[in-house]
Amino acid sequence: MAVEAKEECFAQKPFKLDKLSIASPNMLVRTSSQNDDPKFECRDGWRLFFTKEFECRNATETHIYNVFTSTWSTLDELDNSLPNRHVFKTRYGKRIAYEYEDGEDLLPDIPRPEHPLECYGSTVYGDYLYTFGDLSISEEFGGDRRFFCEIFRIHLKGMGHEYISRPLLHNSDRRFDYSIVVVAERVFFIGGQGFDQLVDLVEIPVFNLKTLSWSTVNTKPDRCSKSVQNYPEARVSPSCLVIDTPNGQEIVIAGGNGKFDNCTDIWALNLLTYEWRFINVIEEINLMIMRVAQSHPHCMYIYGTTGHFEIYRMWLQIPRLETMCLEAISHYRLYKLPETDLIRFRVPPRFFEELKK
């Protein structure tokens, strides 16, 4: 049986950007500044989920892109479904979704006046769902910097909700439009802007969910950077994820909006040395929105828009040999062949279950 041939050679190199798709359902394209971006996540290593809330219709749509077969589908076309979800709302209508297992009690309804004003991130730690609103920084306490944030937490076992802290209203710097990164019990506040300028990435506030206390991380420049600068450019709403490396965990940031243009550079912050590491610049495109998700140990997917929808992929380290073999099967579309032919091509039988997903 003839196999459809591809002209380009199959190769996987770290930090090389590969375009996967520019065709997508219309619902994924950002049509106005008032529309929230789809929630972006990767499951099972190959499937990218794009879930969008339609406030006016009180509806949710989920579209799936299968990286292995380069095909689109909807959630209704799959045998399995997303986990159960409970949705909270901020006072300004933004939705915060918490996924839970079957059999859990219904979560408490929150009176609308008690909802968080705004939410730039949320996480589940222990029995609580935490949300993070405007951040304030004050030097009114004997010269020491103090951090305050509208942190709201909801007890997921039905025991109610509470504020942990509120932002200062006077004599403080305000920060909003930041991104949060959660590593174990620590929450990092990345980027953002005050009322008159963007906030740099030299000093990063950190909130500890275990002790409910604040600290500061003073980052170090990239000493080997080939970039124009050795710190990431100040930006609002960067996309972030956490990866494991031989040198410890790192926070990867990508995209965001800079002072004059959209940011298309990618950096990593080592959580042992707190040193920045320049990774790459996406020179081929200038995405208006960039969102990232991780699959496998070190594969980062990027989606964004330039007026139309685009999906890219980048390996942050050399993938395992087994992963490279599966990627080669995908690249040459060998998954279309019957198992007898796959065995003849010496494809390991233990790959077959993966090919059926």
TrEMBL record:
InterPro entries linked: Kelch-typ_b-propeller, KLHDC10
Lyase found in the keyword field: no
Domain of life: Eukaryota
GO biological process, one term: positive regulation of stress-activated MAPK cascade
Keywords, in A-Z order: Kelch repeat, Repeat
Keyword Repeat appears in the UniProt entry: yes
Record protein name field: Kelch repeat protein
Organism: Lutzomyia longipalpis
